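Posting here for the record, re: 1-O-phosphono-alpha-D-glucopyranose.
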Amino acid sequence: MKAIIPAAGLGTRFLPETKTIPKELLPVINKPVLQYVVEEANAAPGVSSSVIVNSPNKPLIEEYFLRDVELESTLKERGKDQLAELIQYVGDIKLSFIYQHAPLGLGHAVYTASSVTNNEPFYVLLADVIVPDHSILPKLYEVSQVHNNCSVIAVIKVSNDEISRFGIVGGTFAEKLNAQGKLEARPSLYTKGEEYEVGSVWKLDTMVEKPTKEDAPSNLAIFGRYLLSPRVMDILSHTQKGAGGEIQLTDALIELLEDEEMYALVIDPHEGYDTGTVANLIAANVSMAKRDPQLFASLTEQLKSQE
Ligand code: G1P
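Prediction output follows.
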């Protein structure tokens, strides 16, 4: 089973930096955003390897993941064995590349990888979000397993003002994923709002890409982690341009709902960090720095000294 990671976007929000450095290679602490995403993908249940959908204009991405034997031996000569191992590890990460030759949308990017998914279910991970604890994909897998390998997508609760930035799902609150990661039936009596709590699982019947708040079927937004059935690739082969003039993955999923069951799992937005805007990338760096007491102490000290 493959994990598809679309990474062919222009990165306009980070220009002029992204004139040469792809946004997927921008760092969170000392590691490119994309490395976090590939590591998460490769650790997911059932994954044999990750496939990055790249643009031919971003060769630095491929270069980053190549072995650099010269650098490794220089580091070793200088007694920096740990760094040499780190560099070797990056070059050994299991992944392959496929090229999207025109920026025609997320659905088109995913379809570009159809030649390697072998008619099996596949994950899609949007590279804007990092999930350092790798906690989301195993939960999608559990829900999918219980429901005959159906498609499952991660969703978060958003406010009315945020709705138009996302794909929004609609359906009924069906089950709950408990703290042990096992599915339980939805309580027959539940308090209003419980359907939006972390762990709630919805059986979907509709989906809209970037709706107005009036047209949104719920406040549940697609988060950027999907486990999809192979039928999605068949559908993408004929999906037409939709919102924003792009071939939308959401539109293929709407068509999938006519043939197959699909579920959405409400996740805690704090399980991931969005890195898709300048402010969010800085915030993600600060949040990740907090996990390293020494680094965070040094950062806090420097910020205080600037006050
Ligand atoms: C994409 C998806 C959208 C999803 C969003 C999550 O949109 O099309 O359904 O909610 O990612 O970040 P994009 O942000 O690429 O416009």
